[in-house]
Write a structure and sequence with these properties.
The chain is an alpha/beta fold. The protein has 16 helices and 13 strands. A five-stranded mixed beta barrel has the order 1-2-3-5-4. The longest helix is centred in the last third of the chain and has 47 residues. The radius of gyration is 56 Å and the shape is elongated.
Amino acid sequence: MSEEGFFNFHAKLTRGKRAVPRLDSASAAAAAMSPSQLNRLIEQTLKTHLPSTVLVRGEISNFTRNRNSGHLYFNLKDSGGAIDAVMWASRAERLRFEPKDGMELLASGSVGVYVPRGRYQIVVNSLDPIGEGALELAKRQLEEKLRAEGLFSAERKRPIPPFPRTIAIITSPQAAGFADVLKVLRRCPWVRLLIYPVPVQGRDAAPAVAAALKKLGSNHRDVGGVDLIILTRGGGSLEDLWAFNEEAVARAVAACPIPVITGIGHDIDVSIADLVADHHAHTPTEAATFAIREWIHVPETVDGFGSRMRREMRRRIAESMNQLTSIERHEVFRRPAVLIEPHRQRLDDLESELTRELAARRSTALARLERVAGALSPALARRIATRGQQQVTRLEKALPRLGKSMLQLRTAKIDSLGAQLRALSPENVLKRGYSITRLKKTGETLRSATQVKGGELLETHLADGTVDSRAADPKQPELF
């Protein structure tokens, strides 16, 4: 209030009033007012002659919040003075931001008197920051608080599953971005979608969104499991999107055990929920696209695998055919007896070596026996010679039988192997009624009719000979 206004106000109070007469002490005591009466008179006078609502701009100091009542007490000051201010809890709970000392605010309220202490004060109904909106300030304060707690750090966030089988969408079915999300997700009809409807604007939106996140996180197994949550809505003003800047929603996103993707508003909108989410998409469409990013490319990936498998199978079949042709032409399969004959010859050599070795050892033993007999008496020598001769005779009879038995065993084993090789030989296959046809010109064995062109000479091998023929030309008309 200006100085001129104060004097005009003082003149109104004193105009038309008579001076107070001088009274004796007894009369003065009876006419005197108590302090509380004077304070009420001052309060009534202020309310009568001041506007019902005043706007005061000043800087907050000595700010306190009563823990029990929730009332706010502070001073509004400038360079020349200060005034006490109080804001009742019913008004304070509507504030979007937390007042702090040093903030310059615009306070709206009424002037009153606190009778017990005789101090006048402004009873504040609303507070608005100067230079920054209340919502912007509240959002900035909450960002600083949650960032200090580590809720925005990348280490805390959960990885987004590349192939989610069930996706829950928390939004309003009437929200502008809901149709865009469904349009994208329907590209993968095998992905199961669960719609959790909630209001996304207004006073009830934040509690509803926080409750939905909590319920899905604790009860998702009751609906068959949820792999991913998309929290989304279309664009709007800061007031429209404010539910996603509430602390309750931010903490519910951080506490949810299921990964959360947010797609809220437009490219320029970044809410507190976006900063806490495991992945922040700039639009609802981008959120849905990121959720099925790997599913979208599955058909191309499967086609690529199929092409590579077909190429690999053709390569391996060709290699196997070449190996089979090489084995078929090998000398072993054409004349299996070639492998057996060297072993037969080796057996004959071993038999000759064994006979010579036995004869040599017999001669050596007889010579030693004669030397020993010469040193003994004739009768003893004759007995030893007789016994030695008997042992040698027994050995001479036993060794041929043993050698013959071993030779028969080895011969039977070789004959068995030879029989197996002969059974596998192409000659025996031909004897069972099969034939082998080759191109006359190149000798290539035919395995498919596509190898033959009309008019080519063919050579068919049978068990008892070969037959030459010429392939018919399907383009050549028959004579009859």
